[in-house]
Specification:
The structure holds two protein chains of two kinds.
Chain A (H helix, E strand, L loop, with lengths): L5 H17 L6 H26 L7 H19 L3 H23 L4 H20 L4 H4 L5 E2 L7 H4 L6 H25 L1 H11 L1 H6 L4 H27 L1 E2 L6 H14 L6 H16 L6 H16 L3 H19 L1
Antiparallel strand pairs in A: 1-2
Chain B lengths: L1 H31 L6 H17 L4 H24 L7 H23 L22 H23 L1 H11 L1 H6 L4 H27 L6 H15 L4 H22 L5 H15 L14
Helix pairs in contact in B: 1-5, 1-8, 1-9, 1-10, 2-3, 2-4, 2-8, 2-9, 3-8, 5-6, 5-8, 6-8, 9-10, 9-11
Classes of the chains: A mainly alpha, B mainly alpha.
Chain lengths: 327, 289
């Protein structure tokens, strides 16, 4: 069934990609910057979904990994003069190590307990970042200001890009690679192992799936994605400070995967658009409105649409196809 | 030595707050095995209610009682309306619902009362008990905590409703067969948790001041306290609360400084979960395949 449709599907994906590439040339620099943020969130949500959606390990603390990625990028650029693009792999590796190490004790924690431990991590993060002894590196409460990168010179002979346009395209490229990798990971053996460990850990281990290895790797990879997202996010906003990484950041990531669709890949994109743009509109009503809306949306989705937007679209598409077939 | 004793005693005073909140957590965990992430925000909201009463000119203790009553009703309503539908849902759904509650209460409080910090009165202004070790408010806090604990103990030990609640938590199926309305017992548990949280909120508000985010740090200690004492053991949770209060104060004063106090809670939580998941006084569970 799926195979016969695959040329059509590839065409659709290419059209969407082309539209995404064309986007920054049609809108203002400020809007482009907002879409860069959305791309960043999409990467983060994909990472969180690998862990929480596919592997069932609840994390309420991914803001901490986002912060580690952001600070890694900022410190490397500010103190060591590392070029911006080289900070991404570094942030990824650092976060992978942190995530893997956090994932080891997390093996012993299940359900609510893991949620609690990661929640504690999220609440404690800003305080650690403000810590005096680390101030030399982290800049303390002030944070670190970094420069927005210019488009590379070789590109100038083809097309003139603003900084925002270039950063958007750069982030889009990074995201495309990461999505492709995740898609390949999740549709194969590794993905099946993760889902099996989520749905029936004992049966999965009896079938020979190495639980501890897969679960701690899932933590590491998830943190890697989030860290790369954090690094890109730091470059985009040109600034890191402890108070941008509160527990509410972690909660908004959770909102993102719930809205987009838990354990879906495309859901990361819908969720990212939601957490990027809805607060902007809601902010105009009241400072508290975005969070009130987040809360209500969480409830509505859990009660009425546990599969999120991704499953809803899937459902609608199936209905349309069925209707067309009966004609 | 005097400074040390001062730190120790004021640790006990904040420990009382943690004990009360930990007890509220246990109240809900015992019957449903859910950790209520919204407990702190529920307490914060109740404290705002108390502030509204007091601001309207109601005498402190009448406002206190009214707040406890209203919080109890709100707790019951929250269980009936919001938590009930996910009673048997997967853990992830339950956690998300609690987080949703947390976010909604936080933002509604911010919306109604604004995010500016408010002062909250303390009813304990006795001049007679001035001493170098404990402020009057701290003595009052400990006193209130002890009274609440004794009342709860008496309720669960000597009333038939308390017995029914214990039965419903321990063995819901048999309790239902014996004619106990298990669903309502859960709702009562939520009501009690909300009421205890309200008292804890009113006791801590004069110290940390009133704002929508006042509870985030305190709740982290309450989580640590509940885990340390064993999250299914009320007495353990209370002891855990006092221990955590003292540890927090002493560590803050002598080891890590005030800047890393929350990290102490994080380390405590993860440490307990890793090395003694059932806590000091909790029951161990063996799961069957």
């Amino acid at each position: 069934m799926e195979r016969t449709k695959s040329p059509l599907r590839w065409i659709a994906i290419l059209v969407v990609l082309a539209a995404l590439v064309a986007l920054p040339f049609l809108i203002s620099d400020y809007r482009t910057f907002q879409f860069t943020q959305a791309v960043v969130y999409a990467i983060v949500l994909l990472g969180l979904n690998i862990l929480t959606g596919y592997n069932g390990q609840i994390s309420l603390g991914h803001g901490a990994f986002y912060a580690i990625g952001a600070y890694t990028a900022a410190i490397l650029m500010d103190k060591f003069g590392v070029p911006y693009w080289a900070t991404l792999p570094a942030a990824g590796v650092v976060c992978f190590v942190f995530g893997f190490l956090f994932g080891l004790p997390a093996l012993r924690l299940q359900g609510h307990y893991l949620a609690l431990a990661t929640f504690a991590l999220a609440v404690a993060t800003p305080q650690v970042l403000k810590y005096k002894r680390l101030e030399e590196w982290t800049g303390g409460v002030q944070g670190i200001v970094i420069m927005k990168p210019d488009p590379p010179e070789w590109l100038a002979s083809f097309v003139t890009l603003s900084q925002d346009q270039w950063l958007y395209l750069f982030s889009l490229g990074v995201a495309a690679v990461l999505f492709l990798v995740a898609w390949n990971l999740l549709r194969g053996r590794a993905g099946r192992a993760l889902v099996a460990l989520r749905d029936h850990p004992i049966a999965a281990e009896a079938m020979g799936v190495n639980g501890p290895v897969y679960k701690s790797m899932a933590f590491g990879v998830s943190a890697l994605y989030t860290g790369v997202g954090g690094a890109l996010g730091a470059i985009a906003v040109q600034f890191v400070a402890p108070d941008s990484f509160t527990a509410f950041l972690s909660i908004s990531f959770l909102v993102g995967i719930v809205v987009g669709g838990i354990a879906t890949i495309s859901g990361a994109i819908y969720g990212a658009l939601f957490i990027q743009f809805v607060p902007n509109f809601a902010d105009q009503i009241s400072k508290a409105a975005p969070w009130a809306i987040y809360g209500l949306v969480l409830l509505v989705f859990i009660y009425a649409m546990p599969g999120g937007v991704a499953w809803m679209l899937h459902f609608v598409a199936a209905r349309v196809r069925a209707l067309l077939a009966t004609r | 030595m005097e400074a040390f004793l001062h730190q120790l005693f004021s640790g006990l005073a904040t420990g009382g707050i943690y004990a009360a909140l930990a007890l509220a957590l246990v109240m809900i965990y015992q019957s449903t095995h859910h950790i209520n992430f919204a407990q702190g925000e529920m307490a914060m909201f109740s404290t705002y209610l108390a502030w509204t009463f007091i601001d309207a000119g109601v005498p402190y203790w009448i406002a206190f009682v009214a707040t406890v009553g209203v919080s109890f009703v709100l707790g019951v309503i929250i269980e009936r309306v919001v938590v009930r539908p996910v009673e048997h849902a997967p853990v992830l759904s339950v956690v998300i619902v609690f987080i949703a509650l947390l976010v909604i209460l936080n933002s509604v409080a911010g919306w109604i009362y604004s995010y500016t910090i408010k002062t909250f009165p303390s009813p304990f202004e006795w001049e007679a008990v001035r001493n170098p070790y404990l402020a009057p408010h701290e003595i009052g806090t400990v006193g209130v905590t002890v009274v609440v604990l004794l009342l709860l103990y008496a309720f669960f030990r000597y009333t038939s409703l308390g017995l029914a609640m214990r039965a419903a938590a321990q063995n819901p199926v048999s309790s239902r067969l014996a004619g106990i309305r298990v669903g309502w017992m859960l709702a009562l548990g939520w009501g009690l948790a909300a009421a205890i949280g309200a008292i804890a909120g009113m006791m801590i508000a004069p110290v940390v001041y009133l704002d929508p985010n006042m509870m985030s740090g305190i709740m982290l200690y309450a989580f640590a306290a509940a885990l340390l004492g064993g999250i299914d053991n009320p007495i353990g949770a209370v002891i855990g609360g006092f221990v955590v209060g003292v540890v927090e104060n002493l560590a803050g004063a002598y080891v890590v400084g005030t800047e890393l106090k929350l990290t102490v809670a994080l380390v405590l939580i993860i440490g307990v979960l890793l090395f003694k998941p059932s806590g000091l006084f909790g029951r161990r569970y063996v799961t069957r395949v």
